[in-house]
Design goal:
Blueprint: E1 2-8, H1 9-28, H2 36-50, E2 51-53, E3 59-61, E4 63-67, H3 70-83, E5 93-95, H4 104-128, E6 133-141, H5 146-161, E7 166-173, H6 183-197, E8 200-205, H7 206-215, H8 224-239, H9 255-263, E9 271-277, H10 282-285, H11 292-304, E10 341-350, H12 373-376, E11 377-382, E12 391-399, H13 403-418, H14 424-427, H15 433-451
Parallel strand pairs: 1-4, 1-6, 4-5, 6-7, 7-8, 8-9, 10-11
Antiparallel strand pairs: 2-3, 9-12, 10-12
Pfam family, one: Tubulin
Subcellular location: Cell projection, Cilium; Cytoplasm, Cytoskeleton, Microtubule organizing center, Centrosome, Centriole; Nucleus
Cofactor: Mg(2+)
Length: about 450
Amino acid sequence: MSIVTVQLGQCGNQIGHEVFNAICSDVHGKHGLCSKKENESYQDACKERFFRQEKDGVPVARAVLVDMEPKVISQTLAVAARSGYWKYDDRSHFCQKQGSGNNWANGYSVHGPKHKDVIMNLVQKEAEKCDRLSGFVTIMSVAGGTGSGLGAFVTQCLRDAFPASFILNHVIWPYGTGEVIVQNYNSVLTLSHLYRSSDALLVHENDVVHKICAQLLNIKQISFRDVNRLIAHQLGSVFQPIYTSESALHYSRSPLGDLMETLVPHPEFKMLGLRNIPQMPESSLAYSTFSWPGLIKHLRQMLIANAAMEEGIDWQVRPPCPGSSIPSRHSTSKPLHFNTSIANLVVLRGKDLHSADTGSFQDPALYTSWLTPQDAFNLWKTPRAFNKYEKSAALVSNSQFLLKPLDKLVGKAWKMFASKAYIHQYTKYGIEEDDFLDSFTALEQVISSYTTL
């Protein structure tokens, strides 16, 4: 089944381009450890999922590009076409001459309704070119104007137009400092609206990705492209074809459906985080060896200690003792900083999978009490390596990982709102104070639900 990607705003279009690049790089890479039949099956599944074939033989991304300014889309189309490996459809994009000025209300209340018919027509045409549609992945920032405001509006339209299709919003969490003064407002409004329309939100935090680029990849002067490439690599490690726990003979046919069934057992809990291991400079790969027991041990500790990378993990964090009572929000019986999970998915790619024992992820102490480990944990795997890593593991987690950043963001936005700061910039586009209050209430409910796990 196919996925249609909707790239929204500057951030969404730049990351979307890197995602398709990473996928193509993986498909065309050399994987001598796998049989010819295995490689062909993998490539066919990938192409059906992300590309359609044109008469000239160059795969065309199943994507719709949307921005209110033309510059980024023009660059994205041109760079993709020059690669020779894949391209975008020249007719599957929409842009205007005027942006949203980092104002969520402008994107949501003005540009969205004004251009709804054109944008949804492009989406409809792309969906009709799929033999079988799994659903949509939107890529967007939560903090800007077009990506967040228009992105929230488009997601709502997708839900109305395709009620039976899955919608996964991939969202970029803003840097804690140094971006836009109203980014906390924009983020609160975006997240609350997406929570109503989307099946799940897969979150990447800019600060975390930046830290990985600096400390693990040893990049001295980190650019947005470095950040976007790392995000694309992580997304590709999950969305490329894989054998699920339900089928060890055929690659997953419904990638979004399988992901939702595995990770989102309750509509109150939709926040997904993503971790990868190993991550290192390409120049170091030839001199590095990895074992599955070592990778899995580190990945598990990254989960429970809520660490974004294998460097600097707090190994003192331990799960609660079996049989201990469920702690209250203010109880001291729960280990400090322990990250409780609702559901976890481990994705293993590479050789010697027989030596990969993921039993440690089935510890009941890792999970909330209302799901058994058998229901809460899933393992997907394939002997085909991903990109240049002979062994790699990804963890997609529905857990408390975002609780602290979300609480902090809502708190900052509330302080601004209490002093009426910048509210007039939103009310002039039709977003009233009651809309803000509804958004705060929705996110405070999310925070409360994750806190009491």
